[in-house]
Design goal:
Layout lengths: L2 H5 L1 E4 L7 E4 L1 H5 L1 H18 L3 E5 L3 H12 L3 E6 L7 E8 L2 E8 L8 E9 L3 H11 L5 E9 L5 H5 L6 E6 L1
Parallel strand pairs: 3-4, 3-7, 7-8, 8-9
Antiparallel strand pairs: 1-2, 4-6, 5-6
């Protein structure tokens, strides 16, 4: 087991009873674990050769920003509705009880053809699918996705595999 894998902590019944939460905060606090994860994500990113890294709010910002810094390319955030100034593109997606929206500043992706979308966990795939659709608005782009971990039993990959065939996860559960 790598330092990265051993730093992920299982938290029982969080955020609600019956959920086994995979906590990545200890990875961020452990330089060796963080660097192992970053190097693996960076290797995948370098093979893809993105023009920008897009991170999904909020935990996709941690390694998304580090990757953008390492590759010396722009970092672009996808945020929840109403959190970004200026003209935005918006995409809705379904939640267990209702609907939510994510947004990106329209000018931030203008002219980009290759984007790496990053988030911490691929769970059910709903937010990632919405982010992929958001990034394709107005222009077809080549988009790869990367995650620190994937929760296989939730089958999130099934929701996004028709939107991208370049899916990378450091650890599968």
């Amino acid at each position: 087991m790598t330092e990265f894998e051993s730093a992920i902590i299982d938290v029982v019944d969080f955020p609600k009873e019956g959920i086994l939460f995979k906590d990545i905060m200890p990875v961020l606090a452990n330089p060796k674990a963080r660097n192992q994860a970053l190097e693996a994500l960076k290797k995948h990113a370098q093979e893809f050769k993105p023009e920008a890294i897009v991170g999904i709010e909020s935990r996709g910002f941690f390694f998304g920003m580090l990757l953008a810094h390492e590759l010396d390319i722009p970092f672009i955030p996808i945020r929840k509705k109403g959190k970004l100034p200026g003209k935005t593109l918006s995409q809705s997606y379904s939640l267990e009880y209702g609907e939510d929206h994510i947004e990106i500043q329209e000018h931030s992706i203008h002219g980009l053809d290759r984007i790496l979308l990053h988030d911490d966990v691929l769970a059910t795939g709903g937010t990632c699918a919405a982010a992929l659709k958001l990034l394709q608005q107005g222009k077809q782009r080549e988009i790869a996705v990367s995650f620190l971990m994937e929760l296989d039993f939730l089958a999130g990959k099934d929701k996004i595999k028709d939107l991208t065939n370049n899916i990378f996860s450091l650890k599968n559960y």
